[in-house]
């Protein structure tokens, strides 16, 4: 699993919880530059979890979209999810990018 979020406390927490739940977090990035470098150097990954608002205050969230594009190019067909609460047009499922979609996502996770 590849994680990218500029909130270091959140990414630390997510990494620990995902590992405790039996997932293997193989790469964690806390900046745009680090995320691109890790994507370039990874040979395989099962899933990506990217902050769609990475560096929001300095770039308006454009870096999240660029990371998503790099991930999709390097790992075509692999799932990529945005941890953003703001709509992201590059999300795997358009239902997950709407406020109503958030309720469906929560429901899906809790029913699993």
CATH classification class:
Alpha Beta
Largest sheet: 4 strands, parallel
The low-confidence runs, each spanning 5 or more residues with pLDDT under 50, are 92-112
Residue-averaged pLDDT, rounded? 75
User: How far is it from the N-terminal to the C-terminal residue, by CA?
Assistant: 19 Å
In helices, the fraction of residues equals: 40-55%
Gyration radius, to the nearest Å? 13 Å
The CATH topology is given as Rossmann fold
Instruction: Give the amount of beta strand, in percent.
Output: 5-15%
User: Quick one: CATH superfamily?
Assistant: Response regulator
CATH architecture: 3-Layer(aba) Sandwich
What's the helix count? 5
Widest sheet: strand order? Answer: 2-1-3-4
Return the string of H and E elements. Answer: EHEHEHHEH
Structural class: alpha/beta
Strand and helix map with partners:
Elements: E1 2-4, H1 8-20, E2 27-29, H2 32-41, E3 48-50, H3 56-59, H4 62-74, E4 80-82, H5 99-111
Parallel strand pairs: 1-2, 1-3, 3-4
Helix pairs in contact: 2-4
Structure overview:
By secondary structure, this protein is α/β, with parallel strands linked by helices. It has one domain (2-111): Rossmann fold (3-Layer(aba) Sandwich), CATH 3.40.50.2300. It is 47% helix and 11% strand. It is built from five helices and four strands, in the order βαβαβααβα. Strands 2-1-3-4 form a four-stranded parallel β-sheet, with helices on one face. Helix 2 (32-41) runs parallel beside helix 4. The longest helix is centred in the N-terminal third of the chain and has 13 residues, at 8-20. It is globular and about 30 Å long.
